[in-house]
Amino acid sequence: MKFVIVTGGTPPSKQLLASHIKDADTLIGVDGAADVLCGYGELADVLIGDFDTATEQSVRIQQEKGAKVLRLASEKNETDTQAAVDYAIKNGASHIIMLGALGTRIDHTQSNIMLLLRAHAANVDAKIIDENNELLVCNDSITLSGTPGQTISILPLTGNVTVTATDLYYPLNNLLLEFGTSRGISNVMTSDTTQITVKGAYALIIIANADE
After folding, report:
1. Which residues does 174 contact at the CB level (< 8 Å), separation at least 6?
2. What span, in angstroms and rounded, lies between the C-alpha atoms of 34 and 54?
3. Strand ranges (DSSP E) for the chain?
4. CB-count burial class (<10 Å; 0-12, 13-18, 19+) for 41
5. Quick count: other Cβ atoms within 10 Å of Cβ 158?
6. Which domains does the chain have, with CATH numbers?
7. What DSSP state is assigned to residue 123?
8. 56: three-class secondary structure by DSSP
9. Which pLDDT value is given to residue 209?
């Protein structure tokens, strides 16, 4: 099951949102995303948050149109976005797409990136996507699609990693990428696909200008 989570960072464009919810099983709006969804004329299946950044009018409109509203305490030990990811995992998600998860709040951006690990640990494929980037984590093998010339970066996220990859301009053949370094930045795809194998810890993979 595919869950799309729209959270409170830089809002996705209407076009990006539409491209991902067209085949989604469940759309979750997190807190202030209620305003974004109302502005685009979209109805969430579930709204989650303490709603400190959403207008009550948007929450009410969404609820009156059928959205399930889950109100959280303002003082808690996890973010509203983590609550949304946990809800998706608990309710059978196999894929999670997080939109609006990047923005000016670096603390929330970093927290959202770490939630990719949380989803992966639950055997759920998860990505953060905006107009310019696609982010995912990997500690095994994965095949990614793109276009020749597209920039792809592979960064150690939880420790040292050894990376092998096909069809990249800068060859990666059991290359050690040390945690805390920038060695894996700005490789380039030379084909429509690349197969990446990561051994050791988790790597954060970022595809720039992802057209998806």
Report:
1. 162, 163, 164
2. 6
3. 2-6, 26-30, 46-49, 68-71, 95-99, 125-129, 133-138, 141-145, 151-156, 161-165, 172-177, 187-188, 193-200, 203-208
4. exposed
5. 15
6. 2-131 (3.40.50.10240), 137-208 (2.60.120.320)
7. T
8. helix
9. 78
Q: Tokens 């930045």 correspond to what residue?
A: 185
Of 115, 132, 99, 127, whose CA–CA distance to 18 is shortest? 99
What is the pTM assigned to this prediction? 0.95
Residue with tokens 């109302």: 38
Residues 126-159: pLDDT tens digits? 999 999 999 999 999 999 999 999 999 999 999 9
| Average pLDDT by stretches of 10, the chain with 212 residues | 97 97 97 97 97 95 97 95 98 98 96 98 97 97 95 97 97 96 96 97 90 46
CA dihedral 169, 116, 110, 102 (to 10 degrees): 80
Helix axes 106-121, 80-90, angle to 10 degrees: 20
Q: Tell me which residue has tokens 């202030």.
A: 32
- Give the containing element (helix H, strand E) for 66: none
Cα 31 versus chain centre, distance: 17
Dist. CA 50–CA 76, nearest whole Å? 10
Token pair 């945690």 in the structure block, residue: 179
